Amino acid sequence: QETTPSAQSDVASRTPPYPKLLKRLQEVRRVLGSSRQLTLAEKILYSHLESPEESLLTNTQNGTTIRGVANLKLKPDRVAMQDASAQMALLQFMSCGLPTTAVPASIHCDHMIVGEKGADTDLPASIEGNKEVFDFLESAAKKYGIEFWPPGAGIIHQNVLENYSAPGLMMLGTDSHTPNAGGLGAIAIGVGGADAVDALVDAPWELKAPKILGVRLEGELNGWASPKDVILTLAGQLTVRGGTGFIIEYFGPGVESLSCTGMATICNMGAEVGATTSLFPFSPGHVPYLKATHRGSIASAAAGIASSPYQQNLLRSDPEAEYDKVITIDLSTLEPHINGPFTPDFSTPLSKFSEVVESKEWPKTLGAGLIGSCTNSSYQDMTRAEDLVKQASAAGLSPKADFFITPGSEQIRATLERDETLSTFSSAGGVVLANACGPCIGQWKRTDGVPKGESNAILTSYNRNFPARNDGNRATMNFLASPEIVTAMSYAGSTTFNPMTDSLPTPSGELFRFSPPKGFELPSRGFLEGNPAFLPSKGVADPTVEVVVSPTSDRLALLEPFAPFQRSELKGLQVLYKVKGQCTTDTISAAGPWLKYKGHLPNISENTLIGAVNAETGETNVAYDVDGSQSSIPELAKKWKAQGKEWLVVAENNYGEGSAREHAALQPRYLGGRIILAKSFARIHETNLKKQGVVPLTFANESDYDLIKACDEVETRGLLNTLESGGKGEVELIVKSRDGKETVVKTKHTLSVDQCSFILAGSALNLLAIKAREQK
Ligand code: F3S
């Protein structure tokens, strides 16, 4: 077996701090009483509390009701960041003035790499186009002791699974699919950069204790069914909001038969049902995977813990642990599913798919099949797809649809190259793209001539399928399936083809039917390390390194701290915009072409709220000043900022739903936004607003939404007292309309003691910087 000395020497630093966690678990048991039965997720999470006593006994009726109630103050073991979100996380970390990160951290350059012609040309072009950002990330990594995975090294979640994830670990990642690491028994949560900074500076990271959804797996997968079908099926049952506020914990006899990478695929897509994270218990599939990735000592340590009596067993749930809800899935009878288009929860069993295509009049031609990505590029996935390609090639067939392969990491790419899997794909006409996100994040330069706006169908083994996600064309219907189903259907070039039952005509006039795919869980000759240029830098801080941010850059800008809260009520605020209907983080801070300005707050703020619908006129991104003059929302916000006028936004339900994108909170704050007044908030966004010093308030009476108009003047009453008393108190808004009429609007808030301190300091970061200076 190929050896990887670098990985071996790093294994000690990548082992979870088991002795500390086991001691903390005993403390949790003491606080809650020894008879209390805990799920696996609770054990790992609570063992990472800064103070079990404080978090588990405050506001919880002495520990009887923790889930959904307690405010957990957690100390994660590790942080991982992808290149797009790492920029703002690092800019924020830098402004705290610390010499090194408090916990091990890694940066992965994966999102900003285009998928077009293939890895050999796409990678150098993307490095050139993003040089300034990659140089910034690399120099900051060197200075602060962060491991830096350069462009080409792979996708964050695959790198994390191969190197950092481990049973019992708790980590944060600045990407929503961070839960992928739960396939290897870790609690891994996707967060915004400001949350990552909490962990990087050793401040506790707060989380409302999640409820636990147990998914019991029975039986064993067979034939065409794959781990992807577990989560595609579950997404259909739960819908995109069904997992909100829950951790999904898998258990039951079916777990024993799954590969580690299969479990990671299932956890990866838990993000699509809104779950906080997903995880599996320490399982037989973990041992060979840890050994194959040079972490045999972690496998032995975990096996020792997992065989202890349940009271000391950090890696399995207690025998009588109760879940808030249980769903059972029988793997033996599971059928492959196809989900989409446009939403991951529209789930159709393969046997019914052609009927649905006919009835909904979806396109019958399949334009492209794309396999790989962070969700599905394991050795098992790729060798099962390879088996199908070999079957078809032997029958003289070639894929009718364009066929793309994205390896998740250099390790998997190099291993698949040695084992001739990649050459099998290439000989069949497949295009192997760079080890990066590429088409999964809109970085797919599609060359098959489908015009923008024209309805067409593609099939991917990825995890998300919102409109325009892959090729920037909102009319592209993007369906999700396992790599096996994507591969087989690419040969038909048709969305109505069922590879389990239908045949294809061969050039010799015979009929060919695929046999169920067979693959290998792990490479028999071990994994190859691949190109040494793609190995990560060592995480050793070097204070002599200069982090260069050019003052003339349009991609990066150092952050100026926000002003602290003046110790008085807010007066003279004006309503910038009254939003009608859905307002997601995409509405507030759009992605796509704006991705390149993630590290430049003034530039990315030019997209603030550009997707928001004006409640009074029905127009999108059209705002009116007091004198009636018309402009875009960001233009009006900038104009008011220049005039020293601060503002608020009025909105409806679930304001800020979607992702953890902190730019959606940073940008309004930067432009002078002080309050968001909504009917309700999405939880993560509400927290993000508080962290950036914006006050989120909800209407005490939702119908008061109708009383406020754009450009009304607003003054707070009770806000200062509420902030100074750590959240005890009520806030009223005195709203003066343009005709001079005054209305009092009662509001509600969810400000905790810590969050009041963030707002008083100007932002959570200001508070961290103050504390860091005091420590010095
Ligand atoms: Fe990248 Fe897509 Fe995964 S953007 S991290 S491959 S979800």
From TrEMBL:
EC number: 4.2.1.-
EC class (word): lyase
Database matches in Pfam families: Aconitase (PF00330), Aconitase_C (PF00694)
Segments forming domain Aconitase/3-isopropylmalate dehydratase large subunit alpha/beta/alpha: 43-493
UniProt KW Transcription regulation keyword: no
Domain Aconitase A/isopropylmalate dehydratase small subunit swivel: 574-702
Cofactor(s) it depends on: [4Fe-4S] cluster
UniProt subcellular location: Mitochondrion
Biological process according to GO: tricarboxylic acid cycle
Cofactor notes: Binds 1 [4Fe-4S] cluster per subunit.
GO MF annotation: an example: aconitate hydratase activity
Domain of life: Eukaryota
Keywords: Iron, Iron-sulfur, Lyase, Metal-binding, Mitochondrion, Transit peptide
Cellular component terms (Gene Ontology): cytosol; mitochondrion
Family from the record: Belongs to the aconitase/IPM isomerase family.
Protein name from the UniProt record: Aconitate hydratase, mitochondrial
